[in-house]
Amino acid sequence: MHRQDPRGHLAAKTQRIWKFDFAEYGDTIDRNPHATIIPARPISLDSAGRDAVGLLRQLSTDSALGKLELADTIGTGGVGIVFQARQVALGRDVAVKMLREDKRNEAAITDLLREAWVAGSLEHPNVVPVYDILLGDNADPLIVLKRIEGMAWSELIRDGDRVRDQFAADSLLEWNLGILMQVLNAVRYAHSRGIVHRDLKPANVMVGEFGEVYVVDWGLAVSLHDDRSGRLPLAHRATAMAGTPCYMAPEMLGDGASPITERTDIYLIGAVLYEILSGRPPHLGENAMALVRSVVMSDPDFPVDAPDGLVRICRRAMDPDPDGRFENAEQVRLAIQGFLQHRGSEQLAERAEAMRAELSAELAKRVGPSSEHRQRLYKLFGACRFGFREALATWSGNRAARDGLDRATEAMIEYELTQGDPRAAAALCAELPEPPHSLQARIDAERARQAAEKQRSAELEQLGRQLDMSVGQRSRTLAILVLGVTFTVVPALFMWQLGDRMFASHPQIMSWNAVFLVLSLIVGYGIRASLRESAVNRRLYTLLLLILVVQLPMQFGLWAGGFTPSQSILVHMFVWFFLAAIIAATFDVRLVPATLAYLAAFLTMAVVPDIALYIMSVPHGVLTLNAVLIWRPS
């Protein structure tokens, strides 16, 4: 990230703006900030340089005659003019640069020669070769250069259609970065020879018909080392403003705050990269002061769609503090090369990020549970997950792809947790290299909650089955028939046996109870499976056994207490009434008729005790019939 200047640095920058000589350069900047500013006070030649110029002038004034055939004008600059020419001896087309008629003076001649000497010292595929220096008719120097069949990069840098048609390049960004890489090769070579260009910009880069790239216009170049030839201007003497204002580095304003070094060219490379990204140079303003302020601050705004990797490279290259920039051109080249190598991965990540944004928007709708919405979410998630994974497969260090994949996965984990599906959330969480502890804790909590809920549901289901009157219905009905018929028939048979005696004894009554208890135990054993399955059957059977067991000591107590057998039967009848009432109230209200039958029998026995034995079988029969009718199997 771009470093923020402390207040002291901002104050110093403001002072540098006010120290700028607006009287000398302001009008020039206002007229054309894209034009190169030539120092008003050129770097003077030392004695060795003056000797080199003198030696050149000792050449015969007709030395160029017969060697060159001048043709059409190729272009005109601030002090020079370039012609197309024919080099007779070799029969090839060349370019010839000479001074304009209105610019012939000692300083202009020196500048022209220095440009030739600098370019001539750099034998590199991306530097225009200087073939020769000749003298014209008026003894002014003629610089013979390679003729470039092509156009300035500035004419192509924003013309995607032309680049695609002429160079078959689908991506204008990648094509421009390829040109910039070749410019960096030339700059890197020049720096290895101690030469700083000082005027790098798209207009000073020529692109040939076959994609060849040449850095031209070395007129402002300076040398960082004194080779004692006197031909090359020295950087430590370059104290005047020079360069193109809309690309200029802060130290090029000529205030002496920082010397001209290789990092000055690094800044210019960053300025060109900024133009590639934004479509315009970094320093523009309504007037000279606004432009100079932009140069001093060097904090341009980038388009929102500019690739983050290139923005970081550009900011570092354009750091207003030379120490904050890349150390050399090779570092810039490697950084851009790394971006190009990872460009495919970043493009995949960008497309996947768009899908992730769509997924986030879909999740934000908070639509109720539906299979269609879930399918839509997982379709979007699958698309962005695939894109991020492909980006990471291409470049494992793609931080944006890793973060995007994690965010998409975490969003779906949140969704699954809100939908109450911790298993799906856990499966997604396993895909994260470092799952957040908060998410894992929520998954564990949801799992525990659902496990407890499942256990409660199972318990409730089991309880519901146990209390379901339809469960064990067949066994219950069969047991009621067997016991009910027995309880009804046995007293009737006993009455038939007694004949006129009318009353049973206490031992006989206790014998009946014992027989009924044994019979009930036998029936219970026969329906034991049903008793395990149904709590209703178990409780009914338990109540029956409880009554039968309780009747034995109760009968003995009544006997010992002096109760007559008929009085004992009356007590028994009330107990059975009470049992029927409990069953009707707690199990099935439809047993009220049987309950009323027992109550009627009890009251009748109480009023007319002599007929107790005659009616004791009646309520048992009513109970049997009542229970069979309401609980019979479907």
Regarding CATH, which class of the largest domain?
A: Mainly Alpha
CATH architecture of the largest domain: Orthogonal Bundle
**Count of alpha/pi helices:** 23
Count of individual beta strands: 10
Write down the oligomeric state: single chain
Which fold name is given in CATH as the topology of the largest domain?
Answer: Transferase(Phosphotransferase), domain 1
Radius of gyration: 54 Å
What overall geometry do the principal axes of the alpha carbons give?
rod-shaped
Whole-number tally of structural domains: 3
Q: State the end-to-end CA separation.
A: 81 Å
List the helices and strands and how they pair.
Layout: H1 7-19, H2 22-31, H3 47-57, E1 68-76, E2 80-87, E3 92-99, H4 106-120, E4 130-135, E5 141-146, E6 150-152, H5 160-167, H6 172-192, E7 195-196, E8 205-208, E9 213-215, E10 222-223, H7 262-278, H8 288-297, H9 308-317, H10 329-341, H11 343-364, H12 371-394, H13 399-418, H14 422-429, H15 437-467, H16 473-498, H17 506-526, H18 528-533, H19 535-560, H20 565-586, H21 592-607, H22 612-615, H23 617-631
Antiparallel strand pairs: 1-2, 2-3, 3-5, 4-5, 6-8, 7-10, 8-9
Helix pairs in contact: 1-8, 6-7, 6-10, 7-9, 9-10, 11-12, 11-13, 12-13, 13-14, 13-15, 14-15, 16-17, 16-23, 17-19, 19-20, 20-21, 21-23
